[in-house]
Design brief:
alpha/beta; 2-enoyl-CoA Hydratase, Chain A, domain 1; 2 domains; 9-stranded mixed β-sheet; 9 strands; globular
Length: 313
């Protein structure tokens, strides 16, 4: 079995020789820097299972990783894009909330991490921060850390497309939340993967219950008596046969997770409305969640922001 150092060294050598994907080469070099070495280990037997597996990985990357100039490496650790104008700043939480160790697998702007957001928030100390959110969610623990960062900074939020799963927890921690017209919000109970005997699975179920209670603390702190803890617990469970609950912009305001709804003066073109409806259907499929009928069809007006990331952490 190859060590991680051997894997990344061989991958770096192959990418350097092929010259096909500069971004993947930057990722490999960044990972080797993290491991603290750039030396080449002994090569595996060419007919070994590891060698065949590596060949399959390379063929997959050649098909699915387009050659793009690398604008950032894994050292960026999932830092989101941001802009500053005077004493105001905007931070874009687009795509997926990921563990920072996976940041090198994403292109700039496709994902964000707790470490990346912490670095950006440090740069923006003293600024009035607005989060522009269009995210499918992702890493629960990283998302909770981000939620506590934005609460401390008294940041506000604008949901431009969707705030699903842990992204809805981040939204709940903001001092003021605005839903763009046509945007949606989705909440559900946390997921995980467990391997082991029955005792291991029972222990994991207990851990998930505790994580759910921690999420409920954040939701209830936002809505107060307007939407009780029992109501939130039911919303996370969702209707029978579904996982979680979807809300329109207006419904999010009614529940209390959002404070206001942005209403544009004119309708968006049919093509853009259809694209946003398609985005909602894809997120629902990702989480095996039942999308309400009124959200599966194009709305009369919608936000024009779409997802950049496509995988669930």
């Amino acid at each position: 079995m190859k060590t991680e150092l051997q894997f990344w060294t061989e991958e770096r050598d192959h990418l350097a020789a092929s010259g096909q994907d500069s971004h993947a080469l930057e990722v490999a070099n960044a990972r080797l820097r993290t491991l603290g070495a750039l030396t080449k280990p002994p090569a595996a037997e060419p007919d070994s299972l590891d060698a065949r597996s590596m060949a399959a990985v390379r063929r997959f990357m050649a098909r699915h990783a387009p050659a793009r100039k690398a604008e950032a490496t894994a050292d960026k650790a999932g830092e989101p894009d941001y802009t500053v104008a005077g004493d105001a700043a905007e931070v874009r939480l687009y795509g997926e909330c990921i563990p920072h160790v996976l940041a090198g697998w994403y292109y700039p702007g496709e994902a964000y991490s707790d470490v990346g957001v912490a670095r950006v928030m440090e740069k923006l100390k003293g600024k009035r921060v607005t989060l522009r959110i269009n995210s499918v969610g992702g890493d629960v623990f990283g998302g909770v850390a981000i939620a506590n960062m934005v609460r401390e900074a008294k940041a506000s939020a604008l949901v431009e497309g969707v705030a699903a799963s842990i992204a809805s927890v981040i939204v709940s921690a903001c001092s003021k939340v605005t839903m763009a017209n046509g945007s949606t919000l989705m909440v559900h109970a946390p997921w995980s993967v467990a391997v082991g005997n029955a005792e291991a699975h029972r222990a994991e179920a207990g851990t998930l219950d505790k994580i759910r209670e921690a999420m409920l603390d954040i939701y209830v702190a936002k809505t107060g008596k307007k939407y009780s803890r029992a109501q939130w617990k039911a919303a996370l469970a969702g209707p029978e046969g579904a996982d979680g609950t979807w809300w329109t912009a207006a419904e999010a305001v009614t529940v209390g997770i959002a404070d206001t709804r942005d209403t544009p003066a004119e309708e968006l073109p049919e093509a853009k409305r259809a694209a946003l409806a398609d985005q909602r259907r894809k997120v629902a499929t990702l989480y095996c969640s039942k999308l309400p009928a009124h959200l599966s069809q194009p709305a009369k007006a919608a936000s024009v922001s779409y997802l950049h990331g496509g995988r669930n952490a």
